[in-house]
Amino acid sequence: MLAPLALGACGGDETVGGPSAATRTIEITASEYEFNGDPGVIETGDTIEFEVDNVGQVDHSLEVLSSSGTSLGRTERIVPGARDAVTVTFAEAGVYRLICDVDDHLSRGQTASITVG
d(Cα 76, Cα 98) in Å, to the nearest integer? Predict the structure, then answer.
């Protein structure tokens, strides 16, 4: 479980660092104003596909930010009941942030952290 798992972003299915197959898929649910999912262990060099299901009542998104705040990828805006995905390669160890930047969701706490080791 990502605790507190609150994240989101906008954009399309992207792979950072060139096209490559995902090492694995992490399923995440987005609702008001949190994210839930189990990222497990993510190692440096892993390519992860985040599949995001919007189980809430309003639009959400998911964006992955590096420790310096650089966007590594994002989903499109996801309407209630829909799903989108983003694929990211984690080139460096560190703490990454998952956010939802739809409307005021980030300021309401829709963010989570994941550690890559």
Answer: 14
